[in-house]
Amino acid sequence: MKSQHPFQTARAMQWQQLRLPIGLQVASIKASTDGLELIQPSYDPTGLVLAFINHKGDLHVRPAHRSPADEQPASPGLGLLSLASQPLLFRSSTPILFSALILYIPTAWIDVFLKGNGQFLKIEQILEQDNNIITCRLGRRQMSLFSTALGLLLEEPRDILGIQNSFLSLLEYFLCNRHRSLLGVHPSSDIDNEDDLTLIREVESYISEYYCSDTFTVDSILKKTYTSYHRLNFLFKSIHGMTISEYIRNKRIERSKEMIADNVKSISQIAYEIGYSSISNYILAFKKVYQITPGKYKKQIDNMV
Prior knowledge:
The chain is built from eleven helices and ten strands. By secondary structure, the protein is an alpha+beta fold. The protein has two domains: about 15-180, Jelly Rolls, CATH 2.60.120.10; about 195-305, Homeodomain-like (Arc Repressor Mutant, subunit A, Orthogonal Bundle), CATH 1.10.10. The strands form two sheets. A six-stranded antiparallel sheet has the order 1-2-9-4-7-10. A hairpin with an 8-residue loop joins strand 5 and strand 6. Helix 3 packs antiparallel against helix 4 (about 160-180) and helix 3 packs across helix 11. The longest helix is centred in the middle third of the chain and has 19 residues, at about 160-180.
């Protein structure tokens, strides 16, 4: 870890809290201590709390009201969903580097966005049985989002929309990972034609295989599928909420973010390998997706090591 960006000491530890425009509340912490006994922030007990944690060292987690015998070891890169009425305690009896993001989901927000979904009801039932904690392991892309959100929360002035987008992406991943189609998001138009759905899956597969090629274009997709740009764009907007060009751009930028985290190649090498002939175009695209330049993101990753 670089000395010019030290973690907080144990005495200085406190949650950095923020209310997002869409009604969710978030908090973050980043600390290096000889030991840890930290309770997540308190919220209205009727809601839910989703905690994302990363650490180097031994960490144990339990609902704060339970005895130490109920503690469970927690691995790095983990998401934990629990009732807000049962705040979690993070504890370590040995030196630890610890960082966490907290997302409080109030009941009113749940009622608007999640209540009508049968799969989400299953999660609520699991949580209410013996005050369970539902966990999910984060992938490489989610850990990149974690690092981005953590960095933005610690910055002044804060990029509120960037923070919000990162948290919503983490929330969506967690819920969809636990149950398929959990969010209950339906296409904005009635896409129930099997041929259209098959076409979209074929195009998605083709994009996944060739999107990093510098010769890959939307026109190549149109020729392969014998369909029009307007029809394909309509289907992608209906299912993914974005144009096909935006979908391809996001795939490329997501891949480049993973490559930056691997710290093997330079930014310019990564840009060319994912299909960008212009470094400036790549930087603009990266910033449009993640509200941060690839160079600044690389510095954040380096400071976490």
